[in-house]
Amino acid sequence: MSTANPVTPSRSSPSMTLVVVLLGVFVVPMSISGAAVALPGIGKDLDTSGAPLMWVVNIYNLLFAAITLVAGSLSDLFGRRRIFVIGGGLFAAGSLASALAPHIIVLDLARAVAGTGAAGVLASSGAILATTFDGAARTRAFAAMGTAVGIGIAFGPTLSGWLVGGLGWRAGFLFYVVVLAVMLVGSVTIAESRAPERPRVDAPGVITFVLGLALVMTGLVQGPESGWGHPLIIASLVLGPALLWVFVVVERRSDHPVLDLSLLKNRRYTAWCAGTLITSIGFVGTLTFLPTYFQGASGASATQAGVTMLLMTVPVLVAPQAGGWLITRGVSARGLMGTALLLIAAGSAWLTVLRPGIGSLELLGPLALIGIGMGVSFGITDGQAMSQVEPERAGMAAGFLNTVRGGAEALVLAVFGSLLVSLVQSRVGSGHLAEEITAGHLPGGPGQSVLAGHFTSAWHIALWWVAGLCVVGAALVVAMLSGSPAPRPYKDEEYSRKTTAGAGRQHV
Fold first, then answer.
1. Which structural domain range is residue 315 located in?
2. Is the pLDDT reported for residue 431 higher than 90?
């Protein structure tokens, strides 16, 4: 057994810890939404479309989702600050390689490295905050984390649009390198912490989980291009779920699993995980693919598309703090989460007014509703979920929560993108043409308006599906959170004693 190494007070600063963690949390979602705006420019510059182009976003999300759970458990074993720094270094290296990539394959591989690093940053971030702050201070810290996510999402499309329009798509990746470099320098102020016990790494669990999720994602992304009947696609969609089932069996039999499945027996923790999954379904497809629609169907520039997305993303800057403020004043977390999901559903249904050339005024209502709903969810989910688990499993719990979030985002991107391509293909009769249209490259000429109409119809169908799933999800989460509140895993004094952070509990 090994306990956390003490950290001298001069090195540990709760306030600086919060600032540095928020920098890392800020750039993770920004790298998703920003890359999405750059896709048409990347496709044109590197002469690519279809699945290879979509892997720029999807492989980042895939590796992020697959590694987050592993990184969370590793942070418990080897130190939350250590995994935070290693993740930040990989993220920066992958972003630099992305900026210099001469070919789409190189860019996709670089984004895989960046996604792996991003998983380490985000998984350890939640655990660092959970073991540094307590009580109302923790609620405020996690609300600030939600705001940082919101800022990253909000300024990702806009800043990327400005950079792509003025300096080219490579400048966006260089911006991430600069922010991550500042984060790494500031990480010396973070107190190291880890779980009291350091068992061996659950290698079978890690391998089966990563490979299983990777195969599922590969099948979903490549399916529209290769054909759903292609032997490799069938194999991916059969072997992937099979390996995930093997992962569950392995974890049940392991003495030290990478995911302690007893976490899922905690109904309230599981409910908050389900809540973040439904939130991801509600916004990530719109956030990622709507800028491409503006550029393709409406002929907007990357800068204009990014600015229009502010209608959806600016509310995310305010809503997380508002959600945290309401929770600290006794508003029901269950009711607030249900309301947030219904707002996303209403906004998605309203967004079916979408059409080529639509003005910002008509988009304000639906995009703002989606932004408010996702912002409130961001502000309360992590804090509420982490309050259900004991501190020695903080990294594992944070890792699983973010794996659910990242996995949902990765799957939604794959399914949403495949759905758009398939729906457009059913109308135009050509897979290649459908991929060009959904990548924002509509051929010119008299038939352009017809193709834009097909693109729009596909969007309407996808949005109705999103709205319906969010309504069902809201009802499910509220039902799971009903009943008497679960007892706190530890009383405050016991929680403080068991916490392994060198700095102890502090106030923001």
1. 14-189+258-483
2. no
